[in-house]
């Protein structure tokens, strides 16, 4: 009565007769219960349609179905009936006054029926606008009740099923998080052990020149504090690298697939703001991280010198001078640490401000869309959830960005140690050891000069220190005298 698309609509359904498919029969048992005994040729069951065809059917059937439902509503039916009776001659009024609206419409001439249909259609358009499909859901629910389907049972079953799914996903997420934490901690600990071992073995081969370049205090810091920074980063990195992209990509896909894409620009704006805050902090804090590690080196150096030379300091009564020197190194480290921590502490409030501002923007834009009939309130809530999911993934990545600059500086400092080649190297293919020369130390044509010197201090020195004999270097500074107990020889 209210559509000309009968063939298209009925093509999407199948009647419950002897030829009904297994899929349709399964749906009937699901909605009516296991003891389904409905009469044949009374129920139309929706076929398993593709998404495009299902959308097309929704557009075709929503309005006619809603119109049919509207005339069954007592208030709407009474208004419609009064409107129709005004256009009918008086003798016919008395005949059809006690008839139902559906019966009256069936008796109307085609032109008059078409006019009534246009009036109802216009009234629905004015009231609902683009919300016709959503309003038709109420009509469908009433129709389900009329044919004997327990909608409350269906809803409870859906809620139970969805709840079990949510609990299952939460349990899987929890187990995955525990496994990731265990694995990341193990990987980070093993990496820290490997780095410490490599640095220590490398330092054992260093000559005096390399120790002068790095300083003992710096080598201690690189072997402990710098490696610890990398270990902490790796421990957190695996958790974020696995979890954050899944959250972000999943939320983005859900926005494109199941939400109103007219507000997708808000997500893009939020992501740009988050990236902008992180980049600004990187530019400000990155140079300070390098200085921070250097100041730790300095503090370790001062501490080591004071503790090692404590007897001398007490002997010469220079405790106050050394305290001042330590206080300067300690204060410089404190000031740099405060600057870095203040810069990084701005990040989280800034990101939270962006997140809450985005939420307000979504509500403001979505409220206008709801008012215009473009969206539902439920769509806004879903969009907020998906957007927060995407932003939270960036927040997690930003937490790593706090640790990343310092760990990057630490990695460069460790690489400097590992990539440094000692000036004094052992022979790659040494000759087989002669047991007769056990305990013998021999110098052959040995020359020596300090790293910064222009000429050699010693040239072509040759001597033997035999086992069981005393060999000594004696004389005043610069005399270069060598004494051997037997025979005696002196080089002036």
Description:
- With 492 residues, this protein is mainly α.
- It is 71% helix and 6% strand.
- The chain contains 15 helices and six strands.
- It has a two-stranded antiparallel sheet with strand order 1-2. Strands 3-4 form a two-stranded antiparallel sheet.
- Helix 3 crosses helix 8.
- It is elongated, with a radius of gyration of 43 Å.
- The C terminus is likely disordered.
First-last Cα distance: 127 Å
Order of helices and strands: HEHEHHHHHHHHHHHHHEEEE
Which structural category fits the helices and strands?
mainly alpha
Shape descriptor reads: elongated
For the largest beta-sheet, the strand count, sense and barrel status come to: 2 strands, antiparallel
The number of helices is 15
Number of strands: 6
The share of residues in helices is: over 70%
Strand proportion: 5-15%
Mean pLDDT: 80
Give the C-alpha Rg.
43 Å
Question: What are the low-pLDDT stretches, counting only 5+ consecutive residues below 50?
Answer: 482-492
Sheet with the most strands: spatial strand order:
1-2
């Amino acid at each position: 009565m209210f559509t000309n698309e009968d063939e298209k609509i009925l093509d999407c359904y199948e009647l419950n007769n002897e030829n009904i498919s297994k899929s349709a029969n399964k749906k009937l048992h699901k909605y009516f219960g296991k003891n389904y005994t409905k009469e044949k040729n009374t129920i139309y069951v929706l076929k398993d349609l593709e998404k495009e065809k299902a959308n097309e059917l929704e557009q075709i059937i929503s309005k006619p179905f809603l119109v049919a439902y509207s005339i069954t509503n007592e208030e709407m039916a009474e208004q419609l009936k009064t409107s129709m009776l005004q256009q009918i001659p008086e003798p016919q009024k008395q005949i059809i006054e006690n008839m139902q609206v559906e019966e009256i419409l069936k008796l109307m001439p085609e032109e008059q029926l078409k006019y009534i249909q246009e009036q109802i259609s216009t009234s629905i358009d004015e009231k609902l606008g683009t919300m016709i499909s959503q309003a038709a859901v109420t009509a469908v629910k009433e129709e389900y009740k009329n044919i004997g389907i327990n909608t409350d049972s269906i809803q409870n079953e859906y809620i139970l099923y969805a709840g079990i799914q949510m609990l299952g996903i939460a349990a899987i997420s929890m187990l995955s998080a525990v496994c990731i934490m265990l694995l990341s901690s193990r990987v980070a600990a093993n990496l820290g052990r490997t780095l410490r071992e490599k640095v220590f073995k490398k330092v054992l081969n260093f000559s005096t020149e390399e120790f002068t370049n790095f300083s003992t205090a710096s080598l201690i810091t690189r072997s402990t504090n710098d490696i610890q920074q990398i270990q902490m980063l790796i421990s957190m990195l695996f958790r974020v690298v696995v979890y954050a992209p899944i959250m972000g990509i999943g939320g983005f896909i859900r926005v494109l697939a199941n939400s109103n894409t007219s507000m997708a620009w808000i997500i893009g704006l939020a992501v740009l703001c988050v990236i902008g805050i992180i980049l600004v902090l990187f530019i400000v804090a990155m140079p300070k991280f390098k200085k921070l590690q250097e100041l730790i080196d300095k503090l370790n150096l001062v501490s080591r010198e004071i503790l090692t030379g404590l007897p001398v300091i007490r002997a010469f009564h220079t405790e106050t001078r050394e305290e001042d020197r330590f206080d300067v190194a300690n204060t410089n480290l404190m000031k740099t640490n405060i600057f870095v921590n203040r810069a990084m502490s701005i990040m989280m409030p800034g990101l939270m401000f962006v997140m809450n501002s985005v939420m307000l923007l979504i509500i403001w834009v979505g409220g206008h869309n709801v008012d215009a009939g473009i969206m539902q309130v439920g769509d806004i809530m879903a969009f907020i959830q998906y957007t927060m999911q995407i932003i939270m993934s960036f927040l997690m990545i930003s937490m790593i960005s706090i640790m990343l600059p310092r760990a990057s500086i630490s990695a460069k400092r460790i690489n400097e140690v590992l990539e440094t080649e000692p000036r004094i190297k052992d022979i790659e293919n040494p000759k087989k050891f002669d047991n007769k020369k056990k305990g013998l130390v021999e110098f052959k044509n040995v020359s020596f000069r300090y790293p910064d010197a222009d000429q050699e201090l010693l040239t072509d020195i040759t001597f033997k220190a035999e086992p069981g004999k005393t060999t000594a270097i004696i004389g005043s500074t610069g005399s270069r005298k060598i004494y051997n107990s037997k025979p005696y020889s002196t080089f002036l």
